[in-house]
Amino acid sequence: MISPETAELRILDAAETLFYGRGIQAVGMDEIRSASGVSLKRLYQLFPSKGELIQAYLRRRDVRWRQKLAAYADSQATPEESVLAVFDWLHEWFGEPDFRGCAFSNSFGELGATSSAVAETARAHKEAFFRYLAELTAAAGKPASLGDHLALLAEGAITTAAITGSAEPAHQAKAAARVLLAAA
Amino acid sequence: MISPETAELRILDAAETLFYGRGIQAVGMDEIRSASGVSLKRLYQLFPSKGELIQAYLRRRDVRWRQKLAAYADSQATPEESVLAVFDWLHEWFGEPDFRGCAFSNSFGELGATSSAVAETARAHKEAFFRYLAELTAAAGKPASLGDHLALLAEGAITTAAITGSAEPAHQAKAAARVLLAAA
DNA sequence: CTTGCGCGAGAACCATCGTTCTCCTAATGT
DNA sequence: ACATTAGGAGAACGATGGTTCTCGCGCAAG
User: Fold this and answer.
1) How is chain B split among helix, strand and coil, in percent rounded to 5?
2) Any residues with CB less than 8 A from the CB of B67 and at least 6 apart, and which?
3) CA distance linking residue A5 with residue B176, whole number of Å
4) Contact between residue A65 and residue B73 where contact means Cβ atoms under 8 Å apart
């Protein structure tokens, strides 16, 4: 028997791969059991319902996604480079083979109307992303509005890359960001 | 008994309201029957499966959405105003009480991974939108890249407005568009 | 040793959903 | 008037999915 902590990790890994890759409603609890190797009983002990597993999936992904972005952007030499590095990071992300857009936009479109918990988690994620870009632009001595504008560009690049299957929107967004940054 | 044409319209109206408002998988064929007042038998005569109804819903919405946008933007006095009017139109759309984001982004997030037909329809919609913005910027004598940049802004504004429930992203996107337009 | 508890495997249960079928009614053509 | 046919209402069917239950086993405490 595996430890509860390991079981929880395996479940969350399986849930993330499946929910993100195929859509939440397209994945049954039984499939998460097979993919994780954790029995249904344990699964329901750790996550009493599918809804709670969805929330755990989204919360963990929110933290990890923003941490990876910040680790990349914060390691740049200057504040301006940090701002532009956001779009380089997006380009790397878009190129990953299992990239399928923003997990929060996707889950909002799928469940936002029927689950206020999902809607709220998606809202919190976007708000945190906007806040982070506001910090970056503030560090570069630019007005707060620039952060919003760049966030909109990034958001548009994410959904466009997902639907068209191309990483190019990251470069286009970066070019636009350069113009806005220089003008601000 | 109602005519087949009327039945088809009623079904498509009911499907659009329900699919868009609550998500496609959250709506059963029985609910479309109740909302449209058309019997299940007729429904399946006109749309042999739910998948075909989904496609009909998306195709009709694509045409109408782009027509409404073009009608608004094309009635402006100058090419520059047409370009910026796109964002005014978005602001009006975001303010509608049943606004819930882009039907194509939502359906892509929900079904894009399992239905290549949905994925392709979403892709075609985005491509047509990008092409339209390219026409507008070309008419204003601006480079093609500006069209892409503005489309990314609009795209980001749509998903941000949907998730945050605010129409404000349209104004932010317009402000950014003004800068890009002036610099291009 | 044995008694009982926790676990895994998977069946079972119940609701939902896409789709089809049954049965009844009404209108149409001769 | 009568046979035929189309249509509506809703039951029925088969599959799927979320959740719980049963059963058998191994292990730990007394």
Assistant:
1) 80, 0, 20
2) none
3) 47
4) no
Q: Which chain B residue has its CA at the smallest distance from A183's CA?
A: B179
The CA R_g of chain A, rounded to the nearest whole Å, is 18
Interface mutation target, options A107, A121, A159, chain B, most CBs of B under 10 Å? A159
Mean pLDDT computed over B46-53: 97
Tokens for B142?
A: 């601006």
Q: CA-CA distance, A43 to B126, in Å (whole number)?
A: 40
Sequence-distant (6+) residues with CB within 8 A of B126 are A160, A163, A164, B104, B155
**Shortest CA gap A92–chain B (Å):** 18
Q: Are A19 and A36 in contact (CB under 8 A)?
A: no
- Half-sphere exposure at residue B155, Cβ-oriented, CA atoms within 13 angstroms: 32
Number of Cα atoms under 13 Å in the Cβ half of residue B22: 11
Q: Predicted confidence band at B6 (pLDDT cuts at 50, 70, 90)?
A: confident
d(CA B161, CA B84): 18
- pTM to 2 decimals? 0.95
C-beta atoms of A149 and B176 within 8 A: yes
CB of A29 closer than 8 Å to CB of A50 = yes
In angstroms, the CA B83 to CA B173 distance is 12
Residue A1 reports pLDDT greater than 70:
no
| Percent share of chain B, pLDDT over 70 | 99
Q: What is the C-alpha to C-alpha distance for residues A127 and B143, in angstroms, rounded to an integer?
A: 33
Q: What is the pLDDT of residues A13-66, one digit of tens each?
A: 999 999 999 999 999 999 999 999 999 999 999 999 999 999 999 999 999 999
Cβ-based contacts of A148 with chain B (< 8 Å): 169, 172
CB atoms within 10 A of CB A42: 18
Quick one: which of A139, A142, A145, A102 has its CA closest to B173? A145
